[in-house]
């Protein structure tokens, strides 16, 4: 029988094949740049899609309700592939899965621009979600490997590249609108850029294949996951719920509660995003100096203080400063959680990241809708105060994580 694995076609040919410890600092730096560019490519692809949602809504004559229902196709695709993402990364290697999944991610982005019916848009968004999750698990596994090579915390800077790509994607989107380019042409240009990033950087990804541990006889199919991973997942859940609320509700809060005039409505969201991205670029330095546990607890307190301040002082300047504080708070928590998960001694990095990201991602999905229902009953300020409690929970749960 012929054993043909198409993923082997993307075998990397880096200078270092087995031992990276003897590599020159310049080569390790090149690896870090390459992995960072893959994070950037993922962020740019997602931001590109998000920047043209209004145009696609108009082109397909969708109501707000229609669009809301269709947008569920993306997280559904992510959730369905989650049980298999880690196993694929473990079996084939994160470097191979990342190359293939990122290329398919941008190709599915292009296909979104070709959608002319609700069914086509839903299907392409579902596929976009599938390859987005595969890319997410693979790229974070690469981030863990690279962090091990540098023997210090650098995961936050990788996530900073994703955040920076979000700004870049938004600016590029504005430029494309000014040029009156259709979403399809816009997506095609971005896809070309991302593919070029892959071509120039795939050769420098870390080649590592985890050993697949044999299951002991009599072990249950659905064994209880490592308790540390569960705690990390819950911490990620609370942080991503806070992040998701800021993404979806900060503008509404500034409009309805703060009563910000005109263009200043976006000030809350902008201040949050700037501080989150900035915090990720400088976060590793503080983690290396003060330790993960202390920084995670301080970050958790920032989230709570920021949200409670926004509730108690619903005015333009205090709320802007409060949202900046929340941005700094969420900046390093998820990167740190992923870093710790990938270094779990009993579970391969890809599978550990799948467990933690699955729990964390539920927070991103459930946070905004839950806020909507709470706000409808008790008011938006009460709902923000409710999410503020999550920061307090994170501060207490950090003590439960043995590997911090």
From TrEMBL:
InterPro entries for the chain: MFS, MFS_dom, MFS_trans_sf, MFS_Transporter
PROSITE patterns per record: MFS
Keywords: Membrane, Transmembrane, Transmembrane helix
Molecular function, one GO term: transmembrane transporter activity
Gene3D superfamilies: MFS general substrate transporter like domains
GO CC annotations, alphabetized: membrane
Membrane topology: Multi-pass membrane protein
Domain (Major facilitator superfamily (MFS) profile): residue spans on this chain: 29-403
One family name in Pfam for this protein: MFS_1
Residue stretches spanning the membrane: 31-50, 70-90, 97-119, 125-150, 162-181, 187-206, 227-246, 266-283, 295-315, 321-341, 353-372, 378-398
Subcellular location(s) per record: Membrane
Protein name: MFS transporter
Native source species: Flavobacterium flavipigmentatum
